[in-house]
């Protein structure tokens, strides 16, 4: 199924050999060096362009088995999204499909990028992050809003207290849950109100528990307003649940999908 696809194309299935794990099959551009050393014929080499990896499920999360430089991810979706940004231990980046590779029948409707995004949103993604605060931005949005909000937050004296919240992205939007109820119990931002999400463009860090953590934020419409925005800031709580994967999921899957008016 993957032999005629471009490098980075992939399929994830339940593993038949390891119960509770997933099998990741992906198309690569070149065979592994060990295969090239065998001086196989071109036809045989073509069979080596589909590589197989095992995704194990552990109490810490999901990760590629046998790859020490691979982090744990909060969900299979987060793992796929992160590897579409950077290959990490994989031979190349994963290519998010515009259509379901299993749907090859000519009479079946093509799987669009919007449909793929909808399927990912059904699974959702969630992890714990540091909540730094929310700042009103008037009509400002984009990277400038995240940059301005973080500059104002870092300039506060004394610095604001950060607290751990559960950050969940779903088809309904973004839901924050403060499990310890230090600042709030639960806040929900509907998908129609979320405008933008990105890492701090200056890559400044937030120090929490003696760790320098990457910062990201999302911009949402202020409740009851059609023009004013609020930027909500967060920092990585666990490096094994990278901020870049969260941003990529929100930006490409949630914000990037067409919305019903």
Automatic annotation (TrEMBL):
Domain of life according to the entry: Eukaryota
Alphabetical UniProt keywords: Cell junction, Phosphoprotein, SH2 domain
UniProt-listed SUPFAM superfamilies: PH domain-like, SH2 domain
Transmembrane residue ranges: none
Localization in the cell: Cell junction, Focal adhesion
Keyword Phosphoprotein: yes
Principal location listed in the UniProt entry: other
A single cellular component GO annotation: focal adhesion
Pfam families for this protein: PTB, SH2
Name the record gives this protein: Tensin 3
Source organism per UniProt: Myotis myotis (Greater mouse-eared bat)
Lineage, opening ranks: Eukaryota, Metazoa, Chordata, Craniata, Vertebrata
């Amino acid at each position: 199924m993957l032999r005629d696809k471009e490098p980075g194309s992939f399929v994830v299935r339940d593993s038949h050999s390891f119960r509770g794990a997933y099998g990741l099959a992906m198309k690569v551009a070149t065979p592994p060096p060990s295969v090239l050393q065998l001086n196989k014929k071109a036809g045989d080499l073509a069979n080596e362009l589909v590589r197989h990896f095992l995704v194990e499920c552990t109490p810490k999360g999901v990760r590629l088995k046998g790859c020490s430089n691979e982090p744990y991810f909060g969900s299979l979706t987060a793992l796929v999204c992160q590897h579409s940004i950077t290959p990490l231990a994989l031979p190349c980046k994963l290519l998010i499909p515009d259509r379901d590779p299993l749907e090859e029948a000519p009479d079946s409707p093509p799987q669009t990028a919007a449909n793929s995004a909808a399927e990912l949103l059904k699974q959702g993604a969630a992890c714990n992050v540091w909540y730094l605060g929310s700042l009103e931005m008037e009509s400002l949005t984009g990277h400038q809003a995240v940059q301005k909000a973080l500059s104002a937050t870092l300039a506060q004296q004394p610095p604001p207290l950060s607290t751990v919240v559960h950050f969940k992205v779903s088809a309904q939007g973004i839901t924050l849950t403060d499990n310890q109820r230090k600042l709030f119990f639960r806040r929900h931002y509907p998908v129609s109100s979320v405008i933008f999400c990105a890492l701090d463009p200056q890559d400044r860090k937030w120090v929490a528990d003696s760790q320098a953590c990457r910062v990201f934020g999302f911009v949402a419409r202020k409740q009851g307003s059609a023009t004013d925005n609020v930027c909500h800031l967060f920092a990585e709580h666990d490096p094994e649940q990278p901020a870049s994967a969260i941003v990529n999921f929100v930006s490409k899957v949630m914000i990037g999908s067409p919305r019903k008016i």
